[in-house]
Amino acid sequence: MTLRTFLIASWALLSASCQAQQPQGQQDTNRASSWCGELSPDAYRVLREQGTEPRFSGEFWLHDQDGVYVCMSCGARLFDSGTKFKSNSGWPSFFQPEGDTTVDARVDLSHGMRRIEVTCSVCDGHLGHVFEDGPAPTGLRYCINSVALDFVPRDSVDILLKKDPK
Length: 166
Ligand SMILES: [Zn+2]
Hints:
Layout (H helix, E strand, L loop, with lengths): L2 H18 L10 H4 L6 H7 L19 E5 L5 E4 L3 E2 L7 E2 L8 E6 L6 E6 L5 E6 L9 E4 L4 E5 H7 L6
Antiparallel strand pairs: 1-2, 1-9, 3-4, 4-8, 5-6, 6-7, 7-8
This protein binds zinc ion (ZN).
């Protein structure tokens, strides 16, 4: 199965499950409102249209509380605050994701650049990009849009998040 086929299949599955939750006869053909959950216009532009929030504008780029960052769209655990570092990039930066299968990475050739795009492995939402100029131990910098994230404080993690997100 090619990546493209896989993505289309995933999209079809997700659409089907979303539509199944809607009352009959009220299916919305507008893609913007057919995704599961509700996203702000800014979050939708980043997560579903590969947008980028302006530097130094996001809620989390200077955020330093102890806890877990989850996907704004589907709630999957993405990054632990223990892997966050100050990069001066203007976006939240992490040196590794929460787990090996938390995020997916793929080549992004848009805007005349060759970058590695990072997406949520559960809902396929665009999160940001990963660069090879991060700190030890990985040497990676996951440069993530704040609006693609939500934050769960450490003392609420056990209550709000399942141990195994999959
Ligand atoms: Zn997600």
